[in-house]
TrEMBL record, chain A:
<keyword id="KW-0235">DNA replication</keyword>
<feature type="domain" description="DNA replication complex GINS protein PSF3 N-terminal">
    <location>
        <begin position="8"/>
        <end position="58"/>
    </location>
</feature>
<dbReference type="InterPro" id="IPR055221">
    <property type="entry name" value="PSF3_N"/>
</dbReference>
<dbReference type="InterPro" id="IPR010492">
    <property type="entry name" value="GINS_Psf3"/>
</dbReference>
<dbReference type="GO" id="GO:1902975">
    <property type="term" value="P:mitotic DNA replication initiation"/>
</dbReference>
<comment type="function">
    <text>The GINS complex plays an essential role in the initiation of DNA replication.</text>
</comment>
<dbReference type="Pfam" id="PF22466">
    <property type="entry name" value="PSF3_N"/>
</dbReference>
<protein>
    <recommendedName>
        <fullName>DNA replication complex GINS protein PSF3</fullName>
    </recommendedName>
</protein>
<comment type="subunit">
    <text>Component of the GINS complex.</text>
</comment>
Automatic annotation (TrEMBL), chain B:
<dbReference type="InterPro" id="IPR036224">
    <property type="entry name" value="GINS_bundle-like_dom_sf"/>
</dbReference>
<feature type="domain" description="GINS subunit">
    <location>
        <begin position="45"/>
        <end position="125"/>
    </location>
</feature>
<dbReference type="InterPro" id="IPR056783">
    <property type="entry name" value="PSF1_C"/>
</dbReference>
<comment type="similarity">
    <text>Belongs to the GINS1/PSF1 family.</text>
</comment>
<dbReference type="Pfam" id="PF05916">
    <property type="entry name" value="Sld5"/>
</dbReference>
<dbReference type="GO" id="GO:0000811">
    <property type="term" value="C:GINS complex"/>
</dbReference>
<keyword id="KW-0539">Nucleus</keyword>
<feature type="domain" description="DNA replication complex GINS protein PSF1 C-terminal">
    <location>
        <begin position="144"/>
        <end position="194"/>
    </location>
</feature>
<comment type="function">
    <text>Required for correct functioning of the GINS complex, a complex that plays an essential role in the initiation of DNA replication, and progression of DNA replication forks. GINS complex seems to bind preferentially to single-stranded DNA.</text>
</comment>
Length: 194, 195
């Protein structure tokens, strides 16, 4: 639910990713949407990359104003790489919101291959995720993960730490509240900067 | 391109998921201006559609951008609201001055109201069975012992205990205190439990 909420910041950042679209109607005064165009008007049939939120909203109009195409990472060539060995892909560089963005893209994929790729990719990368969450070399292991994978790895590492603390002591000392501690840390960092 | 300022705003907020940033009213003003411009252009073009039907498509694009801006602004305010709630639970009813200045006036008013609501709710708890309220921000972890040893992390000043004793909390001093009396100070980072 967290990801589809109207007020969710992460969903807003996902829908900010660009997607190739073909305009089906003339758009007067909207020439600036296409960086290579010199005219004021955008002609029907132009292919432009626009953010997903705009594409979704224009696609749902009656009649639809745009036809949505697949971004290249979800196309055949990349799909083959992902199906062969998804662990070799650096998601942070390639597509930070691979899974979330893919869920939106899957709706526009008639053949239904994108959704299979998503599941397959996660299945293959799960072991990598698991090892990243117990790894001591956190920078190197976390680097190729996408944003949501990073969050999961961090959550797993926290749980692991809490469990081992509990097993060792069976008792937990009282600590400073999270936000208070972080506020202090930041203030100290700012003081040192000035 | 539309709605780029507002994404900058959200990215700033997202960079600090655990602490609150100063309220960015300058950027919000710029975004509202962008929305005003879009709205005015749309009004003009919508009126002109009687002669030129093809303008409708442009109006729809701008309208999508307006809705997007609105959604992002609301999300920004909402994420701050969740953080302000946490402020009440972690810093207590009175905010330190350096935290207070991070909130806008309206946000501070909301904080005061939330704080009052929470206080009156906590006071009402257990009244039917003869207690006068319970402080929910205390005892977040099960207490293990009546007294604990603490180290003072900041110059706090005098603290009067329930039995009437007054102790002076100075930086780096050690004390042996009843758990119930120092746990709020521990959460606020003034004391630190040592084992």
């Amino acid at each position: 639910m967290e990801n589809s909420g109207y007020l969710s910041i992460s969903d807003i950042l996902v829908t900010n990713e660009k997607i190739p679209c073909k305009f089906l109607h003339d758009l007067p005064k909207m020439g600036f949407l296409d960086p290579s165009a010199s005219e004021d008007d955008l002609k029907a049939g132009t292919n432009v990359e626009i953010p997903l939120w705009l594409a979704e909203s224009l696609h749902s109009r009656r009649p639809p104003l745009v036809a949505v195409d697949l971004p290249k990472i979800y196309k055949d060539s990349y799909r083959e790489i992902l199906n062969a060995d998804a662990c070799t892909v650096d998601m942070h560089k390639l597509s930070q919101y691979f899974y979330e963005f893919g869920c939106y893209i899957a709706k526009h994929d008639i053949k239904g291959e994108v959704s299979n790729t998503l599941i397959n990719t996660f299945r293959q990368r799960f072991r990598m995720l698991l090892s990243a969450s117990v790894s001591t070399d956190s920078v190197g292991a976390i680097q190729p993960l996408s944003v949501s994978e990073r969050l999961q790895a961090a959550a797993a590492a926290n749980t692991e730490k809490a469990l081992s603390e509990w097993l060792q002591r069976g008792d937990s000392i009282l600590t400073t509240a999270n936000m208070v501690a972080n506020h202090r840390k930041r203030k100290r960092a700012e003081m040192e900067m000035h | 391109m539309f709605a780029e300022k507002v994404i900058e705003l959200l990215k700033e907020a997202e960079r600090n998921p655990v602490t609150i940033d100063p309220f960015n009213d300058d950027k919000i003003r710029q975004i509202l201006e962008e929305m005003q411009t879009l709205f005015r252009m749309n009004m003009n073009d919508a009126n002109a559609t009687t002669e030129n039907k093809s303008l409708w498509t442009t109006v729809q694009v701008r309208h999508s951008a307006l809705e997007r801006n609105k959604r992002c602004l609301l999300a920004y305010l909402y994420s701050r609201m969740a953080k302000i709630k946490t402020l009440r639970w972690e810093f207590g009813a009175i905010l330190p001055a350096d935290v207070r200045e991070l909130l806008s006036d309206d946000e501070y008013e909301w904080f005061t109201k939330y704080s009052m609501n929470l206080a009156s709710y906590m006071r009402s708890l257990g009244q039917d069975i003869g207690y006068n309220g319970i402080d929910l921000t205390e005892n977040l972890k099960p207490p293990k012992s009546l007294y604990i040893e603490v180290l003072c992390m900041a110059d706090y000043g005098k603290l009067e205990l329930e039995d009437g004793d007054v102790i002076l909390l100075k930086k780096n001093s050690r004390h042996f205190l009843p758990t119930s009396e120092c746990q709020t100070l521990i959460r606020q980072g003034i004391l630190k439990q040592i084992s």
